[in-house]
């Protein structure tokens, strides 16, 4: 039942998912990221084909096929007869199984539909202005659809998170640990925030303890991607060092580098974390194995992050010091040769110079902000007293 172009897109996405890391991708739909935001055991839909779905396990999504004559239904979260599934991805005939007059959506768009008559596709139309096509009521409804941002290429495109998450299920967010989401029966997304953190596995508002917020990786739950015009153009992800975007001629599609690699903003390529120069401001705690890491700083190499469960808190070395990730501390720039060697082999500091900030004479031992005092020429340990404490609050259930 899957058309050739969507089958090709599926193969491309699976290849990219393997080559660029462990993430399973379907266009701008990051299945792996979604699985971290839902309870283990949840079934997620595909935007390539109705013939299969993904089971979210503790180790990631597992692709599972429906039997012949069945398709995945978001309403039930399982495989149902094709004519009852209300799923249209990759179908050669989206009107299959329909009786009488009906209207079904054109997948990958927010405002287009097919007119069906007794199971036969009789034509295609579009809703006016910013109206959206609602597949439940089979009507054009008022909304914020922007056809200019809809991907018209062969690349599958997710327009709403409720296209893949079954109705009636609460799920979290990969940007904000406090946020919870809920897809209503009509496909409308409802969101709100917990006081502290949303616990996906227990479906409660709880505390930021253990692995509760480990899903927060700055990898967005893919929705309609950004508009662009130059096919093949690449753009870094401003928040995630190991991700980037590629323009398909209409919109920017998100991809991930392999594990341990960052997207180098100067070379438009994925390079090993240590040597890559990612975009300034992205979170270098990603793939880090130490508590403190360099921030991207091409001026002085004097800023760094404190990493806690993937979250980054920006810190600054005192004047005439730079941050040395290997030594886990702020080191004097007085040894210019050592400074230059570090800068040349650590992409986060590419371009930094000793004379980039005012210099003061230093006659003895020094103390980095919040750190311990060491003898001149030694490394000043980064702060060790800033570990955030768990936040307390009233636990509540979103179902309440």
Automatic annotation (TrEMBL):
> Which portions of the sequence form the region Disordered?
355-400
Kindly give the SUPFAM superfamilies that the UniProt entry links to this protein: Invertebrate chitin-binding proteins
SMART domains named in the record: ChtBD2
Give residue spans, biased composition: Low complexity: 366-400
Q: Which UniProt keywords apply?
A: Signal
Q: Which Pfam families match?
A: CBM_14
Give the CC-aspect GO terms.
Answer: extracellular region
Name the domain of life this protein comes from.
Answer: Eukaryota
Q: Which InterPro entries match?
A: Chitin-bd_dom, Chitin-bd_dom_sf
Single GO term (MF)? chitin binding
> Which stretches make up the Chitin-binding type-2 domain?
32-89, 92-142, 225-284, 285-351
Annotated signal sequence is: 1-21
Record field: compositional bias (Polar residues): 355-365
Any idea what this protein is called? Peritrophin-48
Biological source species: Drosophila madeirensis
């Amino acid at each position: 039942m899957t058309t050739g172009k969507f089958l090709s897109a599926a193969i491309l996405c699976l290849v990219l998912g393997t080559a660029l890391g462990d993430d399973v991708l379907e266009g701008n739909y990051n299945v792996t990221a979604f699985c971290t935001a839902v309870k283990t055991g949840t079934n997620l839909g595909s935007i390539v084909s109705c013939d299969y779905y993904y089971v979210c396990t503790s180790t990631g999504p597992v692709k599972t096929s429906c039997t012949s004559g069945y398709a995945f239904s978001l309403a039930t979260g399982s495989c149902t007869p094709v004519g009852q599934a209300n799923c249209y991805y990759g179908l050669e005939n989206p009107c299959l199984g329909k009786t009488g007059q009906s209207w079904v959506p054109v997948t990958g768009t927010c405002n287009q539909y097919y007119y069906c008559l007794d199971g036969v596709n009789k034509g295609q139309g579009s809703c006016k202005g910013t109206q959206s096509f609602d597949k439940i009521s089979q009507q054009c409804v008022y909304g914020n659809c922007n056809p200019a941002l809809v991907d018209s290429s062969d690349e599958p495109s997710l327009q709403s998170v409720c296209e893949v998450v079954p109705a009636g299920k609460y799920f979290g967010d990969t940007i904000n640990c406090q946020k919870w989401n809920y897809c209503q029966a009509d496909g409308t997304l409802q969101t709100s925030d917990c006081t502290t953190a949303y616990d996906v596995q227990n479906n409660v508002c709880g505390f930021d303890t253990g692995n509760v917020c480990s899903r927060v990786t700055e990898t967005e739950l893919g929705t309609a991607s950004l508009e662009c015009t130059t096919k093949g153009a690449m753009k870094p992800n401003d928040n995630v060092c190991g991700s980037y975007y590629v323009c398909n001629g209409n919109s920017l599609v998100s991809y991930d580098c392999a594990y341990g690699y960052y997207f180098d903003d100067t070379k438009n390529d994925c390079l090993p974390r240590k040597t890559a120069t990612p975009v300034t401001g992205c979170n270098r705690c990603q793939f880090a194995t130490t508590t403190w890491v360099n921030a991207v700083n091409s001026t002085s190499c004097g800023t760094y992050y404190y990493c806690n469960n993937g979250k980054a808190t920006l810190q600054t070395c005192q004047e005439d010091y730079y941050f040395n990730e290997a030594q886990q501390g702020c080191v004097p720039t007085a040894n210019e040769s050592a400074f230059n060697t570090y800068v040349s082999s650590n992409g986060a500091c590419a371009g930094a110079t000793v004379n980039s900030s005012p210099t003061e004479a230093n006659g003895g031992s020094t103390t980095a902000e919040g750190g311990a005092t060491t003898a001149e020429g030694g490394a000043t340990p980064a702060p060790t007293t800033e570990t955030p404490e768990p936040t307390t609050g009233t636990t509540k259930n979103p179902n309440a």
